[in-house]
Each structure stands twice: as C-alpha cells, then as structure tokens.
C-alpha cells in the first residue's frame, strides 16, 4: 500500500473489504509523507519486493509511481506488477490512463470526484446563484484540472466563475494562511455567492483555517471531497465517501488477485451513488438552510 499522507478512511475501506469476506491478505504499508522522494523510494522497494498487487493512494503518487501511460520508464515506474489506484482526480487528463473504459496497462482504479456538472446542479438546488468563487493551490494538478471542468460548466450555464489561486509559503508547497483570508475576502467583495473547494492536498492541510475564515465572512462553502465537511466546517458537498471508494477499489483488486483478471481490461469507475453531506453546525451559523426536500436524502453531520 503506497500512501501519500498517511492512513485514512479509504484505506479502512480497502482493508475491511477483505476482512469482512475472510480473505487473507498481507498488507505492507508505506507512506511518502507528502514527499516526491518518498514515492520514488516506495517504487524502488516495490520493484525489489515484487508483491502480488500494489495499492496506490492519490494523484501525485499514481503519476510518480506509474508514469505516463504512453511512455512509462521501466527503470523508474511500476510497469509489470498489477496496481489499483484510488483518490485520484482526472486520471485521463493526468496521463495515468488513456481512457476510463480500458486502461491498456498494468493499472486500473476508481474515481472519487463527482462530475462538475452534477456538483453545479447540486449547488443550484440548494440555493440558486449567479457567481461562484473558488480558491485553490496553483501547484495542485487536481485543482487546476477541476478549475477547467468548472470553467466549462460555468460557460455552458451562464454562471460567473471567479478563480483565486492562493499564495504559497516561500520554500514550501504550503498554502499561506494570510492568502486564504485575503482571497476569500476578495471573493466576498466580488459578490461570490458560493465558495467552491476543489480536491486539493494543500487545502486539506489548511481545511480548518479555510472553512472557519469563510464562516467568519458569512460565505457558504461547497466541497468536492468529504473531509472538508466531516472534519472541518464546510457547509456542504456532493462526494464519494472515502471509505466506500476504498471498498470499491478493493473489489477491483480482488478481481485481479482471485479471479485473475488483467488490470488493463478493468475499467476505471466511480460509485453508482454519491453522498450529499450537510454540516448542520455551519448551516445554523450561516442561517443558510437547504430546501426541506433535501433532508430526505442528505447526510447531516
């Protein structure tokens, strides 16, 4: 198991899939601690150890470990051991696989970000709007890809998308806290009615500062991933639960390990059902409530 920022809910789901079915597996866990050098070291260890399968967590880990689908380097990348990836955004746009239907390589996996069109429709169903603001790290490939998707949907729906890339602390990949406040305040002044939080590792590390600052400014936040709602103070989000996507990834791993399927022939897919989450503490503080019909299917935290 090649992790990027430690063990979390998707790993729980992956482990529990096998445990609940009494399938004996030996999980060898390594963590890159958000460092590219750590990923490269894990790749070297995998090549020496040659496990039956490699679990890869996160876009950065997948890009570094697998390399581009059309030009992998057998000396630097994992090319001849079956792999499954999860918590990866835009695997096609990031060059990990050529298509979702058939990867054609030694890896397959799962998607965890709900399509931008559906996220936008969900925000509109909660409260109609004309302007949406977004903050993101300019160093995050995931965020940049998500911004492109949002731009496309915004242009199709006549919505104004205001983007605010955040400043990075000198010599690090960390988002500046002061930049968070300044950019959110600027978005409020620009008339943003929602703040969109993309899948972004740098923002994950600052999720409390981000969501608390938005709260202070009276701005509702919509998150693309669950941790901003469950473990911070984002208002809402339409998400794939990490635990559930971990289990789905384990299902694909099981197809390879026990059924002998080639990962090249296994499609990259997402869950059939998403979770619509509402943080009621935040809703109460903002006095920003959804239509009553939403409580029939929403998960409140």
* Order of H and E elements: EHEHEHEEHEHEHEHHEHEHEHE
General form: globular
Structural class: alpha/beta
Please give the largest β-sheet: 7 strands, mixed
Strand content: 15-25%
Strand order of the largest sheet: 7-6-8-9-10-11-12
The end-to-end span amounts to 30 Å
Helix proportion range: 25-40%
Work out the radius of gyration. 20 Å
E-strand count: 12
Query: Number of helix segments?
Result: 11
Low-confidence stretches: none
Mean pLDDT: 96
Overview of the structural elements:
The protein has 301 residues and is α/β, with parallel strands linked by helices. Helix content is 39%, strand content 16%. It has helices at residues 9-20, 36-49, 59-66, 116-126, 141-157, 177-189, 201-204, 207-216, 227-230, 242-257, 280-286; strands spanning 2-3, 30-31, 54-57, 83-88, 107-111, 131-136, 160-165, 194-197, 221-223, 236-239, 275-278, 299-300. It has a seven-stranded mixed sheet, sandwiched between helices. A three-stranded parallel sheet has the order 3-4-5, with helices on both faces. It has a two-stranded parallel ribbon with strand order 1-2. It starts with a strand and ends with a strand. The mean pLDDT is 96.
């Amino acid at each position: 198991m090649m992790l990027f920022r430690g063990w979390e809910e998707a790993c729980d789901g992956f482990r529990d899939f096998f445990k609940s079915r009494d399938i004996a597996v030996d999980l060898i866990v390594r963590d890159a601690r958000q460092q590219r050098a750590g990923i490269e070291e894990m790749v070297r260890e995998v090549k020496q150890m040659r496990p039956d399968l490699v679990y890869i967590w996160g876009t950065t880990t997948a890009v570094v470990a697998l390399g581009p689908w059309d030009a992998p380097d057998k000396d630097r990348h994992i090319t001849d051991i079956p792999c499954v990836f999860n918590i990866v955004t835009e695997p096609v746009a990031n060059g990990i696989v050529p298509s979702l239907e058939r990867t054609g390589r030694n890896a397959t996996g799962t998607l965890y970000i709900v399509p931008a069109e559906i996220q936008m429709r969900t925000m509109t169903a909660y409260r109609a709007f004309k302007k949406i603001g977004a903050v993101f790290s300019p160093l995050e490939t995931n965020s940049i890809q998500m911004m492109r998707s949002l731009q496309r949907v915004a242009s199709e729906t006549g919505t104004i998308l205001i983007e605010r890339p955040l400043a990075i602390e000198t010599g690090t990949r960390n988002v500046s806290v002061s930049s968070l406040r300044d950019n959110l305040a600027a978005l409020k002044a620009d008339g943003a009615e929602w703040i969109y939080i993309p899948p972004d590792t740098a923002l994950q590390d600052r999720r409390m500062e981000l969501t608390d600052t938005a709260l202070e400014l009276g701005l509702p936040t919509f998150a693309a991933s669950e941790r901003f709602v469950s473990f911070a103070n984002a208002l809402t989000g339409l998400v794939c639960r990490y635990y559930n996507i971990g289990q789905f990834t384990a299902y694909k791993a099981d197809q390879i390990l026990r059924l002998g399927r080639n990962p090249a022939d296994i499609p990259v897919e997402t869950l059939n059902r998403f979770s619509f989450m509402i943080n009621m503490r935040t809703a109460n503080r903002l006095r920003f409530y959804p239509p009553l019909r939403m409580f029939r299917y929403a998960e409140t935290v």
